[in-house]
Write a structure and sequence with these properties.
The chain has helices at about 5-10, 15-40, 55-65, 70-100, 100-115, 125-130, 135-160, 165-170, 175-185, 190-215, 220-230, 235-265. The protein is mostly helical and about 270 residues long. The chain folds into 2 domains: about 15-45; about 55-265, MetI-like fold (Orthogonal Bundle). Helix 4 packs across helix 5 (about 100-115), helix 6 (about 125-130) packs across helix 7 (about 135-160) and helix 10 (about 190-215) packs antiparallel against helix 12.
């Protein structure tokens, strides 16, 4: 069979499915935008209650030209990344401990499971008293939000490692560090990555919540509070759309990293 035959036999990848998914994904937002504009043109609601899309875009341009909006976005991103890395590191360590040590699981797992029954935002008053309502308190809250998903997924993933691999480590006289680095972490990698992905999303949600409920400081939550206090709905909508966009970026980035790491492991 010739190379030409092989080339012809290989099906060509069509861009149509990608285009179709993109068009379908944009259809509903576009329809909602048209309906929104129609409501404003028909004056079905007062413009101070529901500004038009044109007014919101104009406010967004004004905020960008002022420079403060970029500062607020960077402040929120700094908080989410600090809390995410701290919470993920602590969660990974604690999850490995629970996964490898039966004694630790018996002693600490009931406390951890009890902690998970408490709603996340119920910790805000306590954290604000311990760490204050400033930057430290906000980062502590984000760290706490990122902690639990990594613990749960790491713990479960290590427990799911086949006994044969653990027995192989015992035969090869692996010490605890070798057991962790050569068996536990590689074997539990898919679960760990899933936990880290969830932690990133939770950290972003917690960042906005911390900025809304703790002391006012630069950040997107602060802009939402400002829009509420001044009754500037256009500013609130701009902040909400920016938060939505950043959340989608975090979600897609986490999904991409998860696919790459799992593919690397399988490869």
């Amino acid at each position: 069979m010739s190379w030409i035959t092989l080339t012809r036999a290989r099906p060509a990848r069509s861009l149509w499915p990608v285009v179709r998914r993109s068009v379908l994904g944009l259809a509903l937002p576009a329809l909602l935008l048209v309906v929104w504009q129609g409501i404003c043109v028909a004056r079905l609601l007062p413009l101070y209650i529901l500004p038009s899309p044109v007014a919101v875009i104009a406010r967004f341009a004004t905020e960008l030209s002022g420079g403060q909006f970029g500062t607020d976005v960077l402040a929120s991103l700094a908080r989410v990344l600090k809390g995410f890395f701290l919470g993920s590191a602590a969660g990974l360590s604690f999850g490995v401990l629970l996964g490898l040590s039966r004694w630790a699981e018996r002693l600490l797992a009931p406390l951890f499971l009890a902690y998970r029954q408490i709603a996340l935002f119920a910790w805000v008053p306590l954290l604000s008293m311990w760490f204050g309502g400033g930057e430290t308190g906000k980062i502590a809250f984000v760290t706490l939000s990122a902690f639990a998903p990594v613990v749960v997924n790491t713990w479960r993933a290590i427990r799911a490692i086949p006994d044969s691999l653990n027995e192989l480590g015992a035969v090869l006289t692996f010490d605890r560090l070798d057991q962790i680095s050569l068996i536990a972490l590689p074997g539990a990698l898919p679960g760990i990555v899933t936990g880290v992905r969830s932690a990133l999303i939770y950290a972003w949600l917690a960042t906005v919540g911390a900025e809304l409920f703790l002391d006012i400081a630069p950040g997107m939550g602060g802009r939402l509070n400002e829009g509420r206090d001044k009754f500037e709905i256009d500013l609130m909508l701009v902040a909400l759309f920016v938060l939505t966009g950043l959340g989608l970026v975090f979600s897609q980035t986490a999904a991409l990293i998860e696919r790459r790491l799992v593919t690397w492991r399988l490869g």
